[in-house]
Amino acid sequence: MITFDNVTKLYDRNSRPALNSVSLDVDRGEFVFLVGASGSGKSTFIRLIMKEEHATRGTVYVAGANVARIPSWRVPRLRRGIGVVFQDFRLLPNKTVFANVAFAMQVIGRSRAVIRDSVPEVLKTVGLEGKDNRLPHELSGGEQQRVAIARAIVNKPGILLADEPTGNLDPTTSLGIMKVLDRINQNGTTVVMATHDDDIVNAMRKRVVELRNGKIIRDEQEGIYLGEP
Ligand code: ADP
Ligand code: ADP
């Protein structure tokens, strides 16, 4: 589903690489934790998948396509196949829960009828039944992140990328979010989650890919993470 073939990313000529000769395959349906200290290259990895940044050397493939060869007019189609969730939720503050999720469908031209059916269904998946008419500020942090996840998956992407999705949440709330991500993964979506939260990684026992200074130093099935050295 995602392949990095000897990928190096330099943001500028003189700095050390953000990613340094990274090669990795993520199969369809996998759940992968991308771990490492702040600055190790996790966000860069995610931005390369979305074609928000370009590899300096090497090749990134997403769903069989070399992203460097995707013309700009087709980038929206690439991104439609990828849901993304961030640490800071990024909800529209003046729109209801329903409207935040509906918005993702409106922008790709889905009909009102389809939106009316899909939004309640996806809100149920993330455990937000009955919260349709709330505004983001009326929700807890965990609930806001559930809205963001609902918005990310409502168009049924093959890939869900999560960049520190539990970074603003307490441990109990974080575990609830992980259960949601696990359920989405079990429904067939490939999930890549960047985190430096060792407790979360150790509670889940998924594949763990560890970055240090832009290099993969470890790749383990049912792995653990001991945190930053
Ligand atoms: P992480 O997500 O693990 O914290 P990042 O991918 O954000 O790591 O950063 C990896 C390295 O690349 C760091 O040294 C960071 O300072 C640098 N970096 C990240 N984004 C940029 C950017 N837009 N311009 C220049 N350097 C960047
Ligand atoms: P806009 O800001 O585009 O005028 P809204 O933010 O009010 O629209 O909502 C976007 C869409 O979601 C509209 O079609 C609206 O009717 C619909 N909508 C909002 N909340 C609900 C809800 N709780 N149940 C059903 N439809 C809703």
Largest sheet: 6 strands, mixed
Give the termini separation: 31 Å
Small-molecule binders here are:
adenosine-5'-diphosphate
Tally of individual helices:
7
Average pLDDT: 97
Low-confidence stretches: none
Question: Could you describe the 3D structure shown?
Answer:
32% of the residues lie in helices and 25% in strands. With 229 residues, the chain is an alpha/beta fold. Strands 6-7-8-3-9-10 form a 6-stranded mixed sheet, with helices on both faces. A 4-stranded antiparallel sheet has the order 2-1-4-5, covered by helices on one side. Helix 4 packs across helix 5 (141-153). The chain is globular and about 50 Å long. 38% of the residues are buried. The mean pLDDT is 97. Bound molecules: adenosine-5'-diphosphate (2 copies). One adenosine-5'-diphosphate is lined by residues 95-96, 98-99, 102, 132-133.
